[in-house]
Amino acid sequence: MKVVILAGGFGTRISEESHLKPKPMIEIGERPILWHIMKSYSYYGYNDFIICLGYKGYVIKEFFADYYLHTSDVTFDFCKENKMTIHNNASEPWRVTLVDTGLHTMTGGRIKRVKKYIGNERFMLTYGDGVSDVNIKELEKYHVKSGKYITMTAIQPGGRFGVLDINDESLQINQFVEKSKEDGGWINGGFMVVEPEVFDYITDDSTIFEREPLENLAKEGNLVAYKHYGFWHCMDTQRDKLLLERLWRDNPAWKIW
């Protein structure tokens, strides 16, 4: 199953670093947060990635083009052959498709633009700025059993996010309200499983996935929550980055690989 990662936003709330690189390339422990997310999926056997690029997408392309240089010891021999030798090859079992989905395209439009790379099949979907220890295999099993178009990982961060109204018995999401004030309720944590029918809910590049598509799916009863009680944190601000750096040194709960 393919994993789609949204990595095209401007990252304006962490402009201290995003003026130089896209937010998914901001580092935690000398590795981009995008790498951490991919390692989590890879641990569960999901190794086919489609990354939706936008703002400074060339930085992400260059990272993967020179992946060996970033992760291995190398010797450059300029004396005879201008030769590069890679030592202790730290390769990953990944297939990575990097797609320029537009500079100003909204989240729904980015998803629609990679449809041709996904085909008519189920896929994973998440954001390029959040890490978690969610069990992705169990998430997929839960999704298949639900029979819904989207299963969304729901988490409780305790502030400053939008709210999911979830039926206590069926766990069906009755209403999706993004970016409103809340009091510690359940929010969209990304790490979704999505059926291809969802493409029909996206109109064009101006479609914000978290608005009409998810709101309409919720009204129809086709959006269900997978409640995750473990670790989750997004890197929205510089303060978040510093917290994740400290956790990486002391207790990286999302490091399951």
TrEMBL record:
Keywords attached to this entry: Nucleotidyltransferase, Transferase
Gene Ontology biological process terms in this record: O antigen biosynthetic process
Domain of life of the organism encoding this protein: Bacteria
Keyword Nucleotide-binding: no
Listed EC numbers: 2.7.7.33
Lineage per the UniProt record: Bacteria, Bacillati, Bacillota, Clostridia, Peptostreptococcales
Record-level Gene Ontology MF annotations: glucose-1-phosphate cytidylyltransferase activity
Protein name: Glucose-1-phosphate cytidylyltransferase
TM spans (from-to): none
InterPro entries with a match to the protein in the record: G1P_cyt_trans (IPR046981), G1P_cyt_trans-like (IPR013446), NTP_transferase_dom (IPR005835), Nucleotide-diphossugar_trans (IPR029044)
One Pfam entry name: NTP_transferase
Gene3D superfamilies: Spore Coat Polysaccharide Biosynthesis Protein SpsA, Chain A
PANTHER family with a match to the protein in the record: GLUCOSE-1-PHOSPHATE CYTIDYLYLTRANSFERASE, GLUCOSE-1-PHOSPHATE CYTIDYLYLTRANSFERASE-RELATED
Domain Nucleotidyl transferase: residue ranges: 2-208
